[in-house]
Amino acid sequence: MTTDAEWMALALAEARQAGAAGEVPIGAVLVKDGRRVAGGRNAPIALHDPSAHAEINALRAAGAALGNYRLDGCELFVTLEPCAMCAGAMLHARLARVVFGAADPKTGAAGSVVDLFAQQRLNHRTEVRGGVLADECQSLLQDFFRDRRQAARETAEPLRDDALRTPPGRFAGLVDYPFEPHYLDDLPQLHGWRLHYLDEGPRDAACTCVCLHGAGEWSYLFRHLAARPGLRVLAPDLIGFGRSDKPKRESAHGLAWHRDVLRAWLARVAPEPQPVALVHSASAATLAALWVEAEPGRFASVRTAPDGAGRIAHEAWRAPFPDRGYEAGLRALGAIPEAVSGPTPAQAEILATEAMGYFAP
Questions:
Q1: pTM, to two decimals
Q2: Residue 212 confidence (pLDDT)
Q3: Which of 123, 151, 243, 284 minimizes the number of CB atoms within 10 Å of its CB?
Q4: SS3 sequence of 108-156
């Protein structure tokens, strides 16, 4: 690998990892003699460190790898024009060359706002080249900030004073959960709280599966079934769980109330006489039974979803609950210590095939 564009592509890979972690997506790669020495990505949020820019992290890693704080003969590739702090560090490190992607008109210190590298009175000269894969680097940043603005708008929606709403960033980057969120807050049974649900597949599908999670779980449990083509999958997050609003008081929770919310929600999103199959986790068995008893004939079939191999990854299990204040639902409904993994892709295929069989002509 020898071209600037190829090295910048690796810096972009670092930037994407930063974005997936909720950081501003900026990445860097440090090279010496045509060999990658170190990489770095933005991490000031995770490290609680205002200096943890991608370039600084790459310089630190390179210094450790080479055993020297002087990085003579090294080149650094970064997706965004360096700020004054990073430019100063590069000059102190004695870098031979700096290559960046997108210009930064607000804080860029390689020509956009100031040009530290052009200061003749400094005792080191570093060659600078900008604009390498600039469109790709800029698009990555623009997409990130667009998504963050959208998340902020969602969070800014009215929220009852006695409830909490998990920040959308907690759900970013979860494996196998690329689904568009849907919300309802105008059902009388919700008392102003906002309910989140998945709605995947064609609205006119012959089969609609409603997936019901139990205490300590959420719609992520049914991610493989939701991705299955050929049927419509509806998976609500109970109030207090997943991406739904979380009342601060344990007394707000009760199975009969959750059942009534679910009934009103289903009547809104899948009006009768549309036939529905109910798939529930083992821990949701009691709530499922209450629902079925309250609406005899509403469900063409009722199945308990098999538990897949292993457990939900810790970050997915903890995502809805940033701290104890969000956990009233867990305490009220006696949540299990860990959420089960839910149906595997193979098990989801079997469930979908069986569900569609109920509606076959």
A1: 0.56
A2: 95
A3: 123
A4: CCECCCCEHHHCCCCCCCCEEECCCCHHHHHHHHHHHHHHHHHHHHHHC
